[in-house]
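Methods — Computational structure assignment.
A single polypeptide chain was analysed. Its primary sequence is given first, followed by the predicted tertiary structure written as structure tokens.
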Amino acid sequence: MSNYQEGYLCRCCGKYHTELPMSYGSPVPDYCYDVPSEEQEHRIKMNEDLCIIDDEYFFIRGCIEIPVIDGEGPFIWDVWVSLSKGNFDKTNEFLEVEGREQQLEPMFGWLSTSIPCYPETINLKTMVHTRSVGVRPYIELEPTEHPLAIEQREGITIERIKQIAEELCDEAEQ
């Protein structure tokens, strides 16, 4: 998680936080939560960037980057996107290939992370843009009227980022 140096007084917990979080993420695709815990070891194969459920559903981790209008950015949602088996296999084939970003066309995927602070985001249409080795893919949302898609196109303010931080504030800090 990266942070912005501007602090803020959190309306959620009442404390002053010295840095504003500039990224949030999800450790697994939301569909992993549908697999009973006692079955996860046998049904889910994953590392930090790729996930397969039941040898049938394929996911890649990437970044929805949102420009920050009145500050340094971007603000980032670290998310999971489903891919077809063919595109997942192609991604695996080029995993460590230098210059892969020039060789792979953008791939269609379905957003597979429910992002808080927005209306439901599961199954928003996306395009996955491969970047250089060591950099997670850029996730481009279909240009709809969904608030997350609008923010990706038009940017957000530091005040909006503070609102997100307050909504996601860890109540254990209170």
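Note: The chain is about 20% helix and 30% strand.
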